[in-house]
Amino acid sequence: MSQTHEHSHSGHSHAPANFNRAFAIGIALNIxxxxxxxxxxxxxxxxxxxxxxxxxxxxxxxLVLAWGGALAVKLVPNARHTYGWKRATILAAFANALLLLVxxxxxxxxxxxxxxxxxxxxxxxxxxxxxxxxxGIVINTATALLFMRGGDDLNIRGxxxxxxxxxxxxxxxxxxxxxTLWMGWVWLDPVVSLLIAAVILxxxxxxxxxxxxxxxxxxxxxxxPGAVRSLLQGLPGVAxxxxxxxxxxxxxxIALTAHLVTDTTNTGALLHEAEKELHEHFEIRHVTLQLxxxxxxxxxxxxxxxxxxxx
Length: 311
Hints:
Elements: E1 7-11, H1 20-43, H2 47-72, H3 88-117, H4 126-146, H5 154-183, H6 188-215, H7 225-233, E2 238-248, E3 254-262, H8 267-282, E4 286-292, H9 294-302
Parallel strand pairs: 3-4
Antiparallel strand pairs: 1-4, 2-3
Helix pairs in contact: 1-2, 1-4, 2-3, 2-5, 2-6, 3-6, 4-5, 5-6
C-alpha cells in the first residue's frame, strides 16, 4: 500500500505602502479633537458633543487597530509564537467594541433620562457646538485624505471610509447646533446624541460579533466554506476533501488547512493550482494542504481523533 503525504505552506503577503506617518498624524489630530470636544461638551453640558467625542474616540481606537494590524503583519514568528502576534488585532477589536458598547449605553441612558425629566435647558450652546463640530469636519476630512491613496489595501481603505463618514457626522452636529441657535430647539441636543449613539452602536455591535466570532476561530464572513470545499473538490485529480479548517490569523490574514484525497503523481501542479485558486477567489494566502492516497484516507476515516477526522 502506498501512501502520499505532502505538505504545502503558502504564507506570502503583499506588504502595503508604509502609512506609519499617516497613522501617527491622524491619531494625534483625533486625540486632540476628542479632548477639545469632551471638554466643551462637559463645560456646556452638551450630550451631542459628548456622544460625538465618544464617536471620535472610536476613531482613535480604529486608527490604532489599523496601525497595529499593519505593524503586526511585519512581526516575524518565532519558535514560541509560530503564527506571530497577528491575533492581537482581533483581541484589540473585541476590547474596543466592548468598551464602546458600555460607554454608548451610558450616554443613551443619560439622554433618555433628560428627555423624560424635561431637563433639556442648555445655555447658549448653539455657537459652541457649531464651532467644535466644525473643527471636527476639518480634522476628519484631513485624516481621511491621509489614507486616500491606499484604496487598494482593505485595511487602509477602511480607515479612509471611517474618517470620511465621521466628517459627515460632524456636519450633522453643526446642523443641530444651528437649529438650536436659530429655533431654540434645546431638546435637539439629547435627540442628536441618541442618533449618534445609535449609529455607533449599530457599527460597534457588528464589530463585536465579528471579533468574538474570530476569537473562537470562526470562518471569516468574507469566506464561504461551502464554496471553498467545492473549489478544492473540483481541482483536477482530487477525489475528496476532509479536515477542512478556515480561520482568521488576524484581522487581515486568513489561514486554511485541509486534507486532499488524490492519486495524482503531479502533486506539485495540484498544490500550485490549489494555492492560486484559494488566493484569487477567497484572499486566503496562508495555505497548508496534506495530500493523501485513497487507501490512506480510508484508514484515516477508520480512526477518527488520531490526527485525521472525516467530515
